[in-house]
Amino acid sequence: MILSSGVTVKEFKDDQFLVMVTRQGVIKKTVLSAYGNVRRSGIIALNLNDGDALISVRLCEAGDNVIIGTHDGMAIRFDESAVRDMGRGATGVIGIRLEKGDFVIGALVIKRTSTVMVVTDKGYGKRSDVNDYRVTNRGGKGVITVKTTDKVGKLMAMMELNDNDELVCMTSGGMVIKMSAKDIRTMGRNTQGVRIINLKDNDSITDIAKVVPDDEEGEEGLL
Fold first, then answer.
1. Are 75 and 34 in contact (CB under 8 A)?
2. Cα–Cα 20 to 30 A to 67, which of 135, 136, 156, 195?
3. What are phi and psi of 39, to 5 degrees?
4. Strands of the sheet with 26-31, listed across from one edge
5. Which residues, at least 6 apart from 198, have a Cβ–Cβ distance to it below 8 Å?
6. pTM, whole model, 2 decimals?
7. What CATH number has the domain bearing residue 44?
8. Residue 150 sits in which domain range?
9. Based on the structure, what is the number of domains in the chain?
10. 220 located within any domain
């Protein structure tokens, strides 16, 4: 199992849930309190199918929406209530149906009106209003969140973004680039976006993350 995401919590509550999304599009929701007593040897969090891997873990509450994004630029949005609460050992249910060769690259839990930022491995990106992603049923194929082409590249990251956020991008060539969210254009969901990073030949974006303010560090425990 590959875990590429962590969640910070203060208490293991009965009215909050962990939402887990896998590379193959499976989603699972389990009440947070089920993880309150972790043994030294660990506990089972998710039963994975052969060849699958855990991609995203998010904290959610009643009324939140989930957005799942894929490598080929598709995304689906649905209410968290579309996924029933399951035990720790469960496998989960289909969150998004993938075309052949596609896979999930990330998932978001949306709590408020904001923008969704998407970035491709060839340095293209954009912000779109979250309301451009209509709420549908779980298990569909989703809608286009970025038009992937040989020029634009494939979707490699998505995140919720506000004007005050700052980002750091890392490339395969060892470059680190910092940018402000307010400098990234907000545009329609069904577009290819604009070049936000000038990459050298054969270089590509490997990761992108928000810069966490100092007053948000160290306040909570990591699950």
1. no
2. 195
3. -75, 160
4. 54-60, 17-22, 26-31, 93-94
5. 123
6. 0.87
7. 2.120.10.90
8. 8-212
9. 1
10. no
